[in-house]
Amino acid sequence: MKAAFFFKLLLLSACLSLLYFGIAPGVSLMELLKLLAIGVVASVAVTVAYFEVRGVKAGDPVAVVADNAIPSIFGRQGFAAAGGRKNEQIRIKLGNGSEVTGIIESYPGIISPSKIRVVYEERLVE
Questions:
Q1: Distance between CA atoms of 113 and 2, rounded to whole angstroms?
Q2: What is the pLDDT of residues 73-102, one digit of tens each?
Q3: pTM of the predicted model as reported, rounded to 2 decimal places
Q4: Which domains does the chain have, with CATH numbers?
């Protein structure tokens, strides 16, 4: 999840640095390298802070697990039906149409979605 966001920011910062290098008169190659380095650091910082500030929003992909010890990559996939922050309870819509209630355990990792621990699951009786 974070990897795509990071690379978008990195590409944007590189484009802005190269644009400045091409437009501004008297900009040396060393200044371009400094601008690119600043862009990399800013991309990392924004990527780390963004998901902590944003939390989980309705429609975000999440991984639903029954226990904290299970990595989120192995959880059932679903989508948040409501937004929330870490340690808050939210509803999740699973791929098979059922809904569960869970607590947000962690925000997205580098490639994994937010991890939600199941508290309550509704089962349809046929």
A1: 9
A2: 667 889 999 999 999 999 999 888 888 999
A3: 0.71
A4: 2-54 (no CATH), 61-121 (2.30.30)
